[in-house]
Amino acid sequence: ATNRIAVGGPFLGGHVVIVGSLEDGDFTVDGVPVVDFPSHHALPGGFGNLSYSAEGAVVDQATSTWGKHVVKMSLPSDVQLEVFRWKNYIDLRLTMPRQPRQDGACSNFDGNAADDTTEAVLSRTGFWV
């Protein structure tokens, strides 16, 4: 199970957003804890907007009866990320248009699902996903 994700680097002008499970306690923007629920945040320099609320369609229907803590990120290049914070893990929904040199387990957008396996991605990129 995944219990934390970090988003950052040049894509966000050097800003870093970390979102962890509720038990883990991590939800920070540039190292500053986000504790207000619900809340909204704008990354400096116009690099993105974040909201933290109970709103969002769950990724896994089995979690639909639990209270939701959802971080929604609207990021550059029309990248949208939703992170559902559960007690000891997180669920993610990433929505984005094709990006230059994009590759990975979620697709390389070539229309061939057979070449999105871990082994195929490793052979193309040299990175284990």
Note down, in words, how this protein is organized:
The protein is mostly beta strands and 129 residues long. It is built from 1 helix and 9 strands. It has a 5-stranded antiparallel β-sheet, with no helix packed on it. Strands 1-2-3-4 form a 4-stranded antiparallel β-sheet, with no helix packed on it. It is globular, with a radius of gyration of 16 Å. The two termini are 14 Å apart. The model has no long low-confidence stretch (mean pLDDT 90).
Fold blueprint:
Elements: E1 4-8, E2 16-20, E3 27-29, E4 32-33, E5 39-43, E6 48-53, E7 70-75, E8 79-85, E9 90-95, H1 118-125
Antiparallel strand pairs: 1-2, 2-3, 3-4, 5-6, 6-7, 7-8, 8-9
Compact overview of the structure:
By secondary structure, the chain is mainly β.
Task: Name the poorly predicted regions.
Answer: none
How much helix is in the residues? under 10%
User: How is the main sheet built?
Assistant: 5 strands, antiparallel
Cα Rg: 16 Å
> What is the number of beta strands?
9
Shape: globular
Structural class: mainly beta
Order of helices and strands: EEEEEEEEEH
Distance between the termini: 14 Å
What share of residues are in beta strands? 25-35%
Strand order in the sheet with the most strands? 5-6-7-8-9
In quaternary terms, these chains amount to single chain
Overall pLDDT: 90
Number of helices: 1
